[in-house]
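Here is a typical protein record:
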Amino acid sequence: MAAKGTSKVEEESESAVQTARRQLERAAAQVDVDPGTIERLSHPDKVHQVSIPLRRDDGSLEVFTGYRAQHDSVRGPFKGGLRYHPDVSAEECIGLSMWMTWKCAVMDIPFGGGKGGIVVDPKTLSEDEKERLTRRFAEELRDMIGPLHDIPAPDMGTDPQTMAWFMDAYSMQEGETTPGVVTGKPPVIGGSHGREESPGRSVGIIAREAIDYYDWNPEETTVAVQGFGSVGANAARYLDDLGAKVVAVSDVEGAIYDPDGLDTKDVEGHDEKPGMVSGYDAPKTLGNAELLELDVDILIPAAVGNVLTTDNANQIQAEMIVEGANGPTTSAADAIFEERGIPVIPDILANAGGVTVSYFEWLQDINRRAWSLERVNDELETEMLKAWNAVRAEVDERNVTWRDAAYIVALSRVAKAHEARGLWP
């Protein structure tokens, strides 16, 4: 079963940018926004493509392709991750940059959306090769980024060390240390405490609020998490501490299941020790696809995009879905969940803790004053609750889905900014 106007073939080939545009069109139908503004927001401001030569450890030369999509900067500098993955493309970066625009607007952060990456499997790179590739990528992007223009961050296949190399390369070329050019750095060079845990922590906070909204008892709530990496593991541990029963988690190799609840602190995440999840001594092992279809209260897809599709949407037994990954649900699957009455808390709200603490890091960098972990977590809690309450108000007032409500909040804020600034002749 596909969404109205979407064939199965279309769904299978739906790119991130197509999904993002469908979601924008749907939200636009419910908000009084100038059609010209919607047309502008359907396209990125710029998309940069660069060639990145790399001298491999064996002396050979290989050239990789890198991208940086900059969607909209009406509310502030472009902001978004850099990923190293074989499937990186211009289309993917455009779609993800659009989601970053909405995510920043939902959180009311003064940033716009950006996204980029290199078409490479990071597993094929040595540590030295990854450093050389990153430093050259920073040089290729140098004229397109900056602490007041475009601020990259870690994403799939990149980490705080990658950001440290990137920041150092940029700083050396600029002739001065510029920590604010990226976020997600190690705290010793201007990174923020709590940044790595923040996307998963925000998923946990939003899941907690949703549990309360639907008047569930946390201690009677069961949870399955697909993707026990930095997002999934931190979300699972947050909910475990809340008293919820996390019954299943997975990594790329498979899933483990315990109906009595797993000790999420004993299960090491895939980022911490690859293979630990699927190799953990649990009562039952499952495939990743089986985990998605478990009979649980909350399903958290926290791995990759497009895992909830028309192939499995009717088999999903969860009472609620909280999106930890970016774009885990296709438009067609979303329509099925709406028909079935399964609430889907969207990624642009749930995992927005990452960009929120990135904003905190940027503030710390430009003010040259570090915050404690306690302050970061307190500020994150405050901002997540403000965003939740704004989205919840639209759900209650308009009787729309959570995704539509989040887009209405975001689009209204971005559109007002465009209206206030006008159009350059």
Notes: Residues 180 and 363 are 8 Å apart (CA to CA).
